[in-house]
Amino acid sequence: MTTAREVAARVLVRVEREGAFASAALEAELSRAVQLDARDRALATELAYGSLRVMPWLDEQLERFAPQGTKKLDARVRAHLIAAAYQLAFTRVPAFAAVNEAVDAVRRVRGDRLAAFANAVLRKFAKYTSELGHVDRELAIAASTPAWLRDALDRVLSPAGTRSFVQCGVEPPAVALRVEQPSERDAWLARLRKAAPAGRFETGSVSPLAILVRGAGKPQQLVGYQEGAWSVQEEGAQLAALAVGAEPGEIVLDACAGRGNKAAVLARQVGIGGAVDVCDAIPSKLDHLRAELARCRLSVRASYAIDWRVGSGELVGEYDRVFVDAPCSGTGTLRRRPEIALRRESPDLAAMAALQIAIASRAAAHVRRGGALFYVVCSILREEAEDVIDEVVRKCSGLSPAPFDSPAARAIAADAPSFRLLPHVHGTDGYFVAKLARL
Q: Do 267 and 246 meet the contact criterion of CB atoms below 8 Å apart?
């Protein structure tokens, strides 16, 4: 029988062995474990996300009782040890239950010898945590945050802000829905509450389109999704697209459109008298984008498969607003993608910044006089934010920082030409958003 810990262990294996995103792996595993009730699904989620957030600390502690360490073990054995150690340190699951379940799982996948090893290590670890009496989760998370990331965050937030940032998301965030119009939100909030009384629904804090959902199951199965009344989109991402402030009748370019959630916001803003063109380096994403917009009864005017690293491809002409949602380190999404801290290295930032500068500079050539470029990354690090904007302004004559037109953006930025969204302040993923106007 599949248990919550078994689901979590499978997620850890996929993250380590396949390089999977934890959120996607967890969704896939939970969809297969249909027999789990809501409580067990919540436990599986906590074990998977929690283990990833403190995995370096758990490794260090387990090495006290496994002199050869755990990193060279079979991925399945290692996953069961990590998940069990997390239970022993940070949950109220009885020690004997956590240990016995893990040992039985190891026996099923690798036999008696490794099961005996797991039993010895986990019993010693259980005794150690019991003698401690209390394991400080905050210290474990801090110890698991790479030094390069702590330093980079300190340069932006201060040490106290860094602590708040890395601690945010010990519990996975709510799922965010995006309704099509602000005027529709209250009606959909009431309708969703009635249709799924076991779930919790509330309005978002920074996007006038956002409804936050917890405990309501797979969102695509909720009322309204199939008819295109709303979409699943993280609240900060909603605000990033709303910050463009596109007006009815304008012609807008989404230069890095991906799967189309932000393009849908732009298409709704410009209306039937305007147009949105989209670009992405991966043609299959553009196919998904068109299907997603069709579900919402929206469309784009044209789509282009463009690798901005080498040029603008077949794209010609100028636009009222150009939106660049650039590839980045993703460090602003740590609360839902804790595996990022285990994969990124500080040299990645220089490579990312070079790519971001190339994309934004080439896309800026398509901004008409009097128009604007909007730069967004799901990172809050200075190296991918202000440093990139400074270099784009230096390279592209006629561009200068300018305040936002969008009321939703101005509620955060006031008259500033850029702003950050922070999970511990705004309840969203972390983003940097900037506007550059062409004079």
A: no
- pLDDT (0 to 100) of residue 68: 77
Task: Please state the pTM of the whole predicted model.
Answer: 0.92
- Are the beta carbons of 203 and 235 closer than 8 angstroms? no
Whether residue 248 has pLDDT greater than 80: yes
Buried b (16+ CB within 10 A) or exposed e, 341-368: beebeeeebeebbebbbbbbbbbbebbe
User: Two tokens at 176?
Assistant: 């965010």
Structure-token match 């603008």, residue found: 312
Which of 34-43, 56-65, 194-203 shows the lowest per-residue confidence on average (mean pLDDT)? 34-43
Q: Is the pLDDT of residue 150 over 70?
A: yes
286: Cβ contacts below 8 Å, ≥ 6 apart = 257, 278, 280, 303, 305
Angle between helices 55-62 and 112-132 (to 10 degrees): 100
Q: Classify strands 251-254 and 275-280 as parallel, antiparallel or unpaired.
A: parallel
CA–CA separation, 210 and 214 (whole Å): 13
Question: What DSSP letter does each residue of 174-230 carry, written as one string?
Answer: PEEEEESSGGGHHHHHHHHHHH-TTSEEEE-SS-TTEEEEESS--GGGSTTTTTTSE
The Cα–Cα gap between 178 and 323 comes to 19
Question: Position of tokens 């996300």?
Answer: 49
Q: Is the separation of the CB atoms in 278 and 303 below 8 Å?
A: yes
Q: At what angle do helices 112-132 and 75-90 cross, to 10 degrees?
A: 20
User: What is the mean pLDDT of the segment spanning 132-155?
Assistant: 90
Task: Decide: 329 and 382 in contact? Cβ < 8 Å.
Answer: no
What is the structure's pLDDT at 169? 67
Of the CA atoms within 13 Å of residue 45, those in its CB half-sphere come to 24
Q: Among residues of the chain, what percentage have pLDDT more than 90?
A: 79
CA distances (Å), origin 135, targets 70, 131, 163, 335? 21, 10, 17, 21
Q: What is the pLDDT of residue 170?
A: 67
Q: Which residue, chain included where needed, has tokens 């794209």?
A: 315
